[in-house]
Amino acid sequence: MNPEYSSIDTRLIHAGEPHPRIMGAITLPVFQSSTFEYQGGGSYKDIHYIRLNNTPNHNALHAKLAALENAEAALVTASGMAAISTALLSVLSSGDHLLVQNCLYGGTLNLIINNFSALGIEYDFIDGDDPDSWPALLRPATRAIYVETMTNPLLQVTDLEKTAAFARRHGLISLVDNTFATPINFRPPEWGFDLSLHSATKYLNGHSDIVGGAVIGRADLVDAALEKLNILGGAMDPHTCFLLQRGMKTLALRVRRQNATGLDIARYLESHPAVSAVNYPGLETHPRHERAARLFEGSGGMISFEPRGGREAADRFLERVRLAAVAPSLGGVETLVTRPAATSHASISPEERRRAGIPESLVRISVGIEDAGDLIADFGNALS
Fold it and tell me: What is the pTM of this model?
């Protein structure tokens, strides 16, 4: 690593940027060209083409993302689900077996529950909080283990140290969705994970105006994911690359603000008589608060809670908020609220949601960068 880039704040601005600058441009231009002149080399990798994810805009992002998490390599994709599906399909094939955390983002669960059987890939759900139960689920065909840093939407914190150690001990590939934590709060390669996955749509970009994904980690595994992505065609277009590169430069400023505001809001909700439960790792009452404090540099901007009164109360809350927008997705500068059973986890059955512990009344908050007092007042009015 360049010693000038020892701070993640500096890496966000300077890592991956072209040196010397192109025509003196401070900002990397958009290379809006699908095709590039052939420069020789004799390898398929020497062809530069948007679908092959190797234009100047792609390459700058790959270097910056790898530097952010102190990883060997990185890759951007057309969406977060493109990153997740490509990574999983690059390490698993027909006849293989996956260990997967039992509460995940709905799109990931949909991929595994409704599609893996047709591909001949088997899986078992694991309790991320009970590593002692994992060895009993191992099979000769087990190839990988998949978890989230903070689960969507219950904000559980699995034993990430033991996850990486378990994978190494049994020769498995460890994958973790690090979207909620971001590289500011947690960097999986530093803790021994093989691959770190992101929906770049969310915090990495931070402005609710692109869709993208990222795969970060071991160079050989990122190369395998790139080969799979090139076949599947899930490339990020150059202008989206430009917007993501620009958005990432404010990541540290945004996330640290969201860490602080998230804790303020979680404490307010926990004390409110109309709220029965709050899920936020920064709260001392969170069952894995000590673990989260040890692992993470901040508890993030994602909160979920259950209002007293069930689904009707949740719907009334969503109808009454004014400053926060009722919308799916997360990680932007504006605060968003949603009911996961109707949005992020609507693609799985009610039975699967119950198995994952996601009630119909659960409300998820993605904290933006607005004033904490204004947001608390908005939520207070909606709850009253």
Answer: 0.95
